Amino acid sequence: MNIFTQTSIQIALTRSLGSRLEVVKSLNDVRSEPSYEETLRISSDVNTACRANSILLQSFRLSSCSNDQSRPTAFQIKLLDLLTRRFLHSLHLPFAYKAKSNPLYHFSRKVCVESALALLTYPVSSPTSHCQDEDYVRLTVLGEGFFKSVFVLANRTICLELISQLEEDSPPFGSVSVNSLAHKELYRAIEDSIDLAKRRIEAGETNVKGHIFFSGILGQIDALQAGTSPEQGFLDGAKKRMEICYDLINKLMEQSNFQPLQPSNGEPDWGIQSGDDELGSEFLMQDSGLDFEIPDTWSILDWEGRF
């Protein structure tokens, strides 16, 4: 029966439980790597569950015989999609990274980008669902665990995809422009994710690496457009955000009655020893293995646990 109840969301999640467990088993099997055919089969099941959930909940919201109390909220719809779609995104990630060198996996690249964009998209506001939209936004700002990591993974996918597209579309000499609708959509998603990371810091998070790192990536993208050094673009973008993070952390310390940092000579103390002429990439992230040339060396394992 198409009647929305207090357990409808749980029932919808239960229907996709088997497929989601298959994803977990496939990704965590250390003894063997899943075949691409098996991945596509599981993907089809999860994707079917996502579509079925969307159709079902939208039918509840559009039902003429339902009142506001018996309809799913925008928050419930988006949360259900997040809890299901994140498995689809993770399932295809290992193969999506191989797509640049092997066109056989292009479908995984496409699925990862589409699912990442869906995960990073806030619910559409309306006069009757504004508070529910705010509930979801609050979850993205204050949530921990996978409520945080899922957006980091999605943003990483978008960053790599946009850089790959710009490199593929760039002429032998000169700059490349973010003019197509697809490019603009990806660029806007990265900007929104950086803003989200800033809001998390303002809300009390003290780990600023994700905010700084993705700001550096945006600087690298801007450098690709301008035809300048991508590495320098990364450093400039990251350093600019470090100054913003410095002010935010100082403000948090003051609000928490901690003694704020006291910079010498009026400049933020980044911990650089005297004699250092520039801000190196080692200082920016304190993690090895970053390659400004991007693509193949930036695997899911390289970024694990960094943010």
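(ticket continues) Second input and output from the same batch:
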Amino acid sequence: MASQAQSESDFRQIVSQLKGLTFDDDDDIATIRDLLQQLQQTVPARKDPYAKKTIPATSVSVEMATEMLGIKYNPRNADFFFDLKGKSEITAIDKIGSSQHHQRFRGEPLSRTTIDILLCDRLLALDDRNANRYLQVATEVDIRAELVDDKRKHMYKAGYVTGRADYTLGHGSLKASLEDILIVVEAKKDGDCASAIPQTLCYLAGVQNARKQAGKVNTTVFGIMADTLEYRFVLLDHQRTAFVSRPLSWLMEKDRIVAFVDHIFQSAVAV
């Protein structure tokens, strides 16, 4: 109570001094600047009532993710599509997909196996001889994204969306430093690839927030979502606009899928 009373007294004293000053005198302007700095120090930081309240990223819809995190994205507008072309010679994934064992067991772990193969193959093919830093891979990375403003926090009764990304790629210590992440990868069981879109958008927003807070020049980040049958890709640009590819079938469009992965990896090493 004593410290609060002292703060109020200091506040009143500074305000009183400001009333007697004008902007016509250079000395007054310098004094005003000093007093305003003192005033800022006497005002206690406002506590965020939602700072410790979170929303699981797995429970968020696309509409919620874009609304609460300030992402510009319209899945019904072709301007938000993400598209590329390429060529693939990866046969191991084809063999897994046609295996009788795959037909019996279509869980998320098998999707991760195919993603492991794809990531390793394309990292080996990546021309990173001139890169400043090599891409690193981490799994099970905790990510949180702060809701874009107080209005959204009050609306959703939470301060953050939280979750655990299946894979991340970037530079440095990816589990300890979100600002070093450039790519987020989510694996789903067969038929659930589209359900990863809101989750991935949340993780990308969290990574982008961390990169901006760390003063990174490049804040564009990428997402890859996959089951063993289908792939989708996301780009979240520096203006917080999301571009999402259409669903791509590994059976029919593996060349295009590989082109996306190669493009994303090459963009990451060019940072």
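Agent notes: The longest strand covers residues 136-146. The beta strands are 54-56, 136-146, 160-170, 181-187, 221-226, 230-236, 242-244, 248-249. Closing as not reproducible unless the customer responds.
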